[in-house]
Amino acid sequence: MTKIIVVTSGKGGVGKTTTSASFAVGLAKHGYKTAVIDFDIGLRNLDLIMGCERRVVYDFVNVIRGEASLNQALIRDKHVNELFILPASQTRDKDALTTEGVAAVLEELSKTFDYIVCDSPAGIERGAQLAMYFADHALVVTNPEVSSVRDSDRMLGLLSSKTKRAEEGREPIKEHLILTRYSAKRVTSGDMLSIADVNDILAIPLLGVIPESQAVLRASNSGEPVILDTESDAGQAYADTVARFLGEELPHRFIEEKSSWLKRLLRFKEKETI
Amino acid sequence: MSIQDQLSKILHYFQRPQKTAKVAKERLQIIIAHERVERDKPDYLSLMQKDLLDVISKYVSINRDDVKIELDRQDGCSILELNVTLPNAGK
Which of A32, A231, A250, B17 is the most buried (most CB within 10 A)? Predict the structure, then answer.
């Protein structure tokens, strides 16, 4: 049974495309046949993050309009087997995506793919609504920052009302929190919302914590999803996140500040005095 | 720089910095609780408020803020509460 996963956040720039790319690569590395679709019509970017921008011939909208077949538009990923990318179109036509068109593409993909990852655009317009409409799982990407948390809560509201599962009264979409750009150091110093803070507010299960990392920019510079940088903290955190999604029980890593014994001692004293 | 200024600077240095994350959490809890209530309201509520306002304005002159409309849910039963503040009869 094919699973459709939407990567959403409301706010822009929090790491939806980075997460979509790494998550899709991770699923494919586990041997699942995976397609990742860019729903950001007019502002295509998944192709750059996946490093296939020069191989785009046809796109999502061409397929919906019947100008190309799905097989012509799907780009085979060069990093892992079993992974295919369906790029967004650069058209400025806001109505290029239709519910029927998206339904038809997802249905055809469902015949052969195990997972379909839908990379949602920012905002709550049509692209974002259609990206989540058919989903079985939602990865809610959130930064430990006020505007991102608020927007994520807004998206949770939409997930529970404006989706096919909600409309048909079926079992609700499974929501997973992915906390990105997390800095243990700033949490310790009291200047960043902690995992517990965000959990208290959004109250959905935490799937992964991705630390703020230099590796993410390096990865997008070179068009290699960061999960492939197996030496990096962010890459390992994404690998853990995918494994957890597939049912493995793994502790969260990179969530504590690497501290010297002196600092730890000082903090211990601080706790004592409180 | 006066001695007082210097003293306050030194004091400031030793003060525990304000934990902004705590402020962020409190602000978020308040605004999100508010927004969750709003989002559970049916879409027609604001339209109905406008219509009611039009009807009432036909007879008395009131402001938009004088009409408050609330929907409460209690054990499977919804209560629509309409609160209209009428201007003083004397005026």
Answer: A32
